[in-house]
């Protein structure tokens, strides 16, 4: 069972790192293009939190023609475990990012 959790964290981290790298390259998403380490890390932490906590929602039609949004928020015990998984997820994302990031030194401008 632990192996499948590890694989899930690895797979989720790989998808998140790939998506963040694509957003960094997208001209329509300038927020991650700047070299603001704190914004990039904050974004990564937020996504790791969202992936690991698991707040589920359901959007359903009811019999009167309306719609119902149901949010399922985890119990305190599940939230504590979720925080542990968040830390695992963020550590995996950061590790993968450090492994795949471009290590080419950037020459100072004006040289």
Which helices and strands, and how do they pair?
Elements: H1 2-25, H2 37-53, E1 56-61, E2 67-72, H3 76-100
Antiparallel strand pairs: 1-2
Helix pairs in contact: 1-2, 1-3, 2-3
Describe the structure concisely for a colleague:
The chain is 59% helix and 11% strand. With 111 residues, it is mainly alpha-helical.
Describe the structure.
The chain is mainly alpha-helical. The chain has one domain. 59% of the residues lie in helices and 11% in strands. It is built from three helices and two strands, in the order H-H-E-E-H. It has helices at residues 2-25, 37-53, 76-100; strands spanning 56-61, 67-72. Strands 1-2 form a two-stranded antiparallel sheet. A hairpin with a 5-residue loop joins strand 1 and strand 2. The longest helix has 25 residues, at 76-100.
Estimated share of beta-strand residues: 5-15%
Total DSSP helices: 3
**Separation, N- and C-terminal Cα atoms:** 55 Å
* Cα shape: extended
Q: Largest beta sheet: what is the strand line-up? A: 1-2
Q: What would you report as the Rg, rounded to the nearest angstrom? A: 18 Å
- Give the quaternary arrangement of the chains: single chain
Structural class: mainly alpha
What is the domain tally? 1
Helical fraction equals 55-70%
What would the average pLDDT be, to the nearest integer?
75
Largest sheet, described in full? Answer: 2 strands, antiparallel
Please count the beta strands (DSSP E, at least 2 residues each). 2
Order of helices and strands: HHEEH
Low-confidence stretches: none
């Amino acid at each position: 069972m632990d192996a499948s959790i590890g694989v899930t964290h690895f797979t989720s981290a790989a998808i998140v790192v790939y998506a963040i790298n694509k957003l960094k390259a997208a001209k329509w998403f300038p927020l991650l293009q700047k070299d603001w380490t704190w914004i990039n890390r904050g974004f990564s932490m937020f996504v790791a939190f969202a992936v690991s906590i698991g707040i589920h929602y359901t959007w359903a039609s009811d019999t009167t023609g309306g719609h119902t949004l149901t949010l399922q928020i985890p119990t305190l015990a599940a939230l504590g475990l979720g925080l542990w998984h968040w830390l695992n997820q963020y550590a995996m994302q950061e590790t993968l990012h450090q492994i795949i990031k471009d290590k080419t030194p950037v020459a100072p401008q004006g040289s």
